[in-house]
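User: Here's a chain of 244 residues. Predict its fold as tokens.
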Amino acid sequence: MLRKTFDSALEYLLYTEYRFLGGKRVVKMIVNDVKGLIDQFFPDNLEVGQVIWPAVSVDESQEQHKKIEDHKIIPVRLNLVTREDMEKLEKKVKKTEIEKARAVRLFNEAYEQGALLTQADVVVLLGKSIPTVSKYVQQYQNEHDEVLPTRGNIHDIGPGITHKGIIVRKKLEKKSTSQIAKETNHSPEAVDRYIRDYGRVKMLIGKRMTVEEISYATGISRGVVEQYRELHKLENDINSDKKE
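Assistant: Prediction complete.
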């Protein structure tokens, strides 16, 4: 009776249906790994308002064209609805502010568990449109001068204009690369890359090239070039004030 278990059934399946050629020790290791995944994806101790959601590991390589099935996926426990959310509703807090706070919470909770949500993940979780969630992200980052740990920001996929601008602006404030990396959840290498891109754009602005020409020459999107141009104007204003 003790041997009539899920483990035994899975071992039998591997040997008979899949003609697995490994030894018993290897099969038992596979069975244990499968059971571990089941426990992670289907826990039996979820609290009210929580969900398990599959997210890409933060340690994955930053490859824009890599298939999602080739990534390491981590099931994360997210607080979709909290007591605080309901208390805000009771206090007549604006619905948009509650939703923005929920979106921010979801991104941060996944990151704390070693994974990253995309804006599309949060769109599905909150039942909102992509433009709405994107607006919440942009607003929060602008209001707090903080980069949210979205997958687009951390793995540098998609346009991600605002987080690049925040990084460059912090550099203009004379902050070190390591400090900026810590404040924006980026690697020092990524921070240095954005700073170099800004330097390239600034040089071409000095040559009186248009936004379209700079975008073509550097391979940087027009939106990012435009934001870098605004930051260049800010840098010039700061330098002018210092001279005065």
